[in-house]
């Protein structure tokens, strides 16, 4: 029997294991096979969305290894209690970030934290030469219309961001990242603190398998005008 990896090279997880986040996402976007009869745009988006959900597309980052999402169960109740002090405190600790990501997956809104992580990685670029490919990948994955992991941004923020993609700066995604941060802080974070997952951690118990819930109403920046994110 032929090796399935030879027939389906895209299943070779090790090939992408050590790639930076933006390179993996970029390859996911551009490696669509060309066919004589091209599928419709909606079919392409659905196929790409499923492709991006595969574990190999998150190897090497905060979301990649399945073990990362269960490590939060080993944190002490005292450590978990500190996550309730502020949203910034939650995201600043890896176990907290993993637990929050696991919670967002139950609400089908993990694109928000993935975008936030991608922006954090983008700002750590060591040279201006790295900015353009990273910026294009983030824009195509999270911001442009019908992007496979499109985040909820107001029209003005989306326009300002798109206009700077051609000559990106380290601050290119600051406004968009700030908007998504506020949405998570004001909408998802309070629900996380009230969730069974978080309560289990406070009680020193491994969290039970969370039931998936349908996506709640998406808040927009208008809901939180005047609120400012805390990146300290």
TrEMBL record:
Leader peptide range in chain numbering: none
Pfam families to which the protein is assigned, alphabetical: RGS
Any one GO BP annotation for this protein: negative regulation of signal transduction
InterPro entries the record matches: RGS, RGS_sf, RGS_subdom1/3, RGS_subdomain_2
Superkingdom, taxonomy of origin: Eukaryota
Residue span, RGS domain: 86-202
Cross-referenced SMART domains: RGS
Keywords per UniProt: Signal transduction inhibitor
PANTHER family from the UniProt entry: REGULATOR OF G PROTEIN SIGNALING (PTHR10845), REGULATOR OF G-PROTEIN SIGNALING 18 (PTHR10845:SF155)
Protein known as: RGS18 protein
GN (gene name): Rgs18
């Amino acid at each position: 029997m032929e090796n399935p990896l030879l027939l389906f090279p895209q299943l070779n997880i090790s090939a992408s294991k050590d790639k930076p986040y933006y390179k993996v996402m970029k390859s996911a976007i551009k490696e669509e096979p060309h066919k004589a009869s091209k599928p419709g745009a909606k079919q392409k988006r659905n196929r790409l969305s499923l492709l991006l959900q595969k574990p190999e597309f998150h190897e090497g980052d905060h979301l990649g290894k399945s073990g990362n999402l269960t490590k939060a169960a080993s944190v002490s109740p005292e450590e978990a209690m500190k996550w309730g002090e502020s949203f910034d405190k939650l995201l600043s600790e890896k176990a907290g970030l993993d637990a929050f990501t696991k919670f967002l997956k139950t609400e089908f809104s993990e694109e928000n934290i993935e975008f936030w992580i991608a922006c954090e990685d983008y700002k750590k670029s060591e040279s201006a030469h790295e900015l353009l490919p990273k910026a294009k990948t983030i824009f195509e994955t999270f911001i442009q219309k019908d992007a496979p992991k499109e985040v909820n941004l107001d029209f003005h923020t989306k326009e300002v961001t798109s206009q700077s993609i051609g000559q990106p700066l380290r601050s290119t995604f600051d406004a968009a990242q700030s908007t998504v941060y506020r949405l998570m802080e004001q909408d998802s974070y309070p629900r996380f603190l009230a969730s069974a997952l978080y309560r289990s951690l406070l009680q020193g118990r491994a969290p039970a398998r969370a039931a998936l819930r349908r996506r709640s109403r998406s808040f927009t920046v208008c809901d939180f005008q005047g609120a400012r994110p805390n990146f300290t």
